[in-house]
Amino acid sequence: MFKSKPSPSPSPAPEELPPLPPLQFHGYKPTTTQKLLTHDISSNIRNLLPPRLQLFNDWYLIYSLDQHGISLNTLYNNSKLSNQVHKPKIEKGYGDQIISRIMKESPTIRRPVGYVLIVKDNKNNKFGAYLNENLKPMDHKRYYGNGESFLWKQEHVKGTKDHRFKAFMYTGINDNIIYSNHDFIAIGSSNGQNGLYINKSLEEGISYRCETFGNEILNGDGDLGGNSHKFGDKVFGKFEIRGIELWRVGSLD
């Protein structure tokens, strides 16, 4: 009599990773009236960060035009790593605990950090960049940063009060990621036209399409700038700045 073989036991399901803890923002003062970072923007950006940085649930305000005044030098000074490590210590979250354990086991590994730049213009558009390095003035023209960086914008959905988040990732066409000095901040470039350009007074900026990120104009809906201009066959968006914030993702200690 034929006897059937017992069915193999089903393989155990792989252990699911715990959900990412909610983000906590550190640095806003109780008197701050203009807060650019929202949970909607931060969660969209977080999903695009390198996995090692998605673990961090604490974001730290490094510079705010509202809190620190209108000064490019202050932005650079606050961005120095030596000036960031003296911030008041906050109880470490889930990501910090994991990274600290890895650092103890492999002390040669560099502690991961990243930076989120947010700009608000005179038409209430919000846009900016994720940068893998802190902003700094370069004495000589030299681009820095790597392909983890990207541009983003939150655009209005026509006919509604809703917003749509868009990100523009590194294309690999060129390595013009970040170039900054005492006269401007420029992120992404092709033929001298920047994906995001901010002038030294932190009062005005320009956004072009650029090959570095294949981006749309950042201060507008679709590929139209909020204040569209043409230079030859190139369309760009020119904007007045109403707010700037720079946030650090990851701890330095």
Describe the structure in brief.
This is Oxidation resistance protein 1. The protein has 253 residues and is an alpha+beta fold.
Tell me about this structure.
This is Oxidation resistance protein 1. By secondary structure, this protein is an alpha+beta fold. The chain has one domain. Helix content is 16%, strand content 31%. The protein contains six helices and twelve strands. Strands 1, 2, 3, 4, 5, 6, 7, 8, 9, 10, 11 and 12 form a twelve-stranded mixed sheet that branches. The radius of gyration is 21 Å and the shape is globular. The model is unreliable at 102-109 (pLDDT under 50).
The largest sheet, given as strand count, sense and whether it forms a barrel, is: 12 strands, mixed
**Total strands:** 12
Instruction: Give the oligomeric state.
Output: single chain
The overall pLDDT average reads 85
Q: What pattern of helices and strands is seen along the backbone?
A: EHHEHHHHEEEEEEEEEE
Taken together, the total number of domains comes to 1
Shape: globular
Tell me the fraction of residues in β-strands, as a range. 25-35%
* Number of discrete helical segments: 6
Q: By helix and strand content, what is the structural category?
A: alpha+beta
Helix proportion: 10-25%
